[in-house]
Amino acid sequence: MSGNTESETDLDAEPFDGDHAYRKVDVDEIADVPSPATHKKEVDEAVGATTFGFNVYEVAPGEEVPWGYHYHPEHEELFYVLEGTLHVKTPDGEYEVGADEAFFVPAGAPNFAYADDERVRFVAVGAPKEFDQAVIRETCPECGEATGRDYEVLEEGDEVVYVLHCAECGAEAKRFASGP
What we know:
GO terms for molecular function: metal ion binding. This is Cupin domain-containing protein. The chain is mostly beta strands. It folds into two domains: 25-133, Jelly Rolls (Sandwich), CATH 2.60.120; 137-180, Single Sheet (N-terminal domain of TfIIb), CATH 2.20.25. Helix content is 3%, strand content 47%. The chain has one helix and 15 strands, in the order βαββββββββββββββ. The protein has one helix at residues 43-47; strands at residues 39-42, 53-59, 64-71, 76-83, 85-90, 93-98, 102-105, 111-115, 120-127, 135-136, 138-139, 146-147, 149-156, 159-166, 172-177. The strands form four sheets. It has a five-stranded antiparallel beta sheet with strand order 1-2-9-4-7. The radius of gyration is 20 Å and the shape is globular.
């Protein structure tokens, strides 16, 4: 034997005995959550992950992800594109991230992602999950100031709707619900 290979008798010891909380899910069966994208599946919530976020997005042409130009003060993100080309705007310029490419966003780094003229499917992974809070900063369509956003969650019929408001003047800036 060489390196860190365990002997067969070591495999009988903890943590190799006992029950574990393994989970398998069909991502297509996970309910959509409110998002400006066509579909957002919170896989991390479906499996009970507690230390990282893992979302699968489907974004139609012209749609954005997630809620606007934002950053996470203490949370890193990694986007892995499955299909199409994801466009990511940053203060350093715009990046095009194609299928089988990954894009890393450090904590505190502003970004805004969208689909241009083709459908995009991608995975967004973020950690630490407990610091997922985003700071949104965009120009308000009403007052014209670059401000943050407050939001409220409304129930309209059978649908949950998120409404974003300008933190300065209170005007409605965006409204979205769960996928189609």
